[in-house]
Specification:
Elements lengths: L1 H6 L2 H25 L9 E4 L5 E4 L16 H18 L6 H31 L5 H4 L4 E6 L9 E7 L2 E9 L9 E9 L2 E6 L6
Parallel strand pairs: 5-7
Antiparallel strand pairs: 1-2, 3-4, 3-6, 4-5, 6-7
Length: about 200
């Protein structure tokens, strides 16, 4: 193993390091997803529109609508996965380094888009069940998955439990910005996919 590694060029060592690291993190994320880990203790890193860094869940949730932040740690790992494996597999088959990098970037972007679309579809299938959000969501509690900008200046994401099932919705708030991981309570319904929430203050005994 060491001899193989030392035989590689610096470029190939970098590519293999990216590829193997991304693969390991992807496997860990997948295992956490199937084990049912949510927003607590997740390893996703999400960047909101203001440039703030938020720690999100490892539930594998994606959304391809305009309100969804594209720059998430999970998407970054998916890109590195597609980019890295394409680059290391094609490096000796394509003589042009430019073409190798271009192909690797295209595959990385395509993988991110495909995964986002898949989880968008799964999320839509989940939310299209028998739950009437207008009658069932108000009063439910949960946690912020993606930071909710204050004063209805933008949408975030929340995960709430309805009828013993965890569901994800877009969310607005009227007060201050609510960061990722904060407990919230639903106080209103904006539409079938967007809820109005407030921060759930812990009870002080």
């Amino acid at each position: 193993m060491i001899a193989w590694w030392n035989s590689l060029s610096t470029v190939m060592q970098v590519l293999w390091a990216i590829t193997l690291s991304a693969t390991l993190i992807f496997v860990i994320q997948t295992i956490m997803t199937f084990l049912g880990f949510g927003g607590d203790g997740g390893i996703d890193t999400d960047f909101d529109a203001a440039g703030n860094v938020d720690l999100g869940g490892a539930d594998g949730s994606f959304d391809a609508d305009p309100s969804m932040n594209l720059l998430t740690f999970r998407n970054f790992i998916n890109f590195c996965l597609g980019f890295g494996w394409t680059a290391v597999l094609m490096h000796d088959r394509i003589k042009s380094d430019f073409l190798v990098v271009l192909l690797a970037v295209i595959v990385g972007v395509a993988l991110v888009a495909a995964v986002m679309w898949m989880f968008k579809w799964l999320s839509g299938m989940q939310q299209s069940g028998n739950i009437d959000v207008h009658t069932s969501a108000v009063g439910c509690e949960g946690k912020v998955y993606l930071t909710i900008p204050g004063e209805r200046k933008g949408e975030g994401k929340i995960q709430i439990t309805i009828n013993n099932a965890v569901r994800e919705y877009d969310a607005l708030c009227e007060g201050d910005t609510i960061p990722t991981g904060t407990p919230i309570k639903v106080i209103g319904v904006v539409n079938d996919h967007t809820l109005l929430v407030e921060e759930l203050n812990p009870t002080i005994i």
